[in-house]
Write a structure and sequence with these properties.
Layout: E1 2-3, E2 6-7, H1 10-28, H2 37-53, H3 59-72, H4 78-94
Antiparallel strand pairs: 1-2
């Protein structure tokens, strides 16, 4: 499904549902166990943005980067996690892993 310059597959639809549910959880003031809702929401938006812009991404390597970024939110501030996400994404693109 195309929405402007973005292409969304069925995998991304689950990510869209996740961001909607996280937005509802933020609005209601609920926090999932161990995670901050705002940090996970930020990472989910970044993942959705990069997956939407680059539909030809290899899912296994991208899944590894996304999973590491999600678990790093347990220990690091969100700025460092976003920095890790973008640097690893750029390095993976340069090395043609993704």
């Amino acid at each position: 499904m195309y929405i402007g310059p973005f292409y969304f597959d069925t995998k991304e639809l689950f990510l869209i549902i996740l961001t909607i549910l996280l937005a509802v959880a933020m609005y209601m003031g609920w926090d999932p166990a161990w995670f901050k809702t705002r940090d996970i929401f930020t990472i989910a938006i970044l993942i959705l943005f990069t997956k939407g812009l680059l539909p030809a991404i290899h899912n296994e390597a991208f899944f590894f980067v996304a999973l590491c970024a999600i678990f790093l939110t347990l220990y690091l501030p969100i700025f460092q996690v976003v920095l890790f996400y973008f640097i690893s994404f750029v390095l993976f693109r340069i090395l043609r892993i993704i």
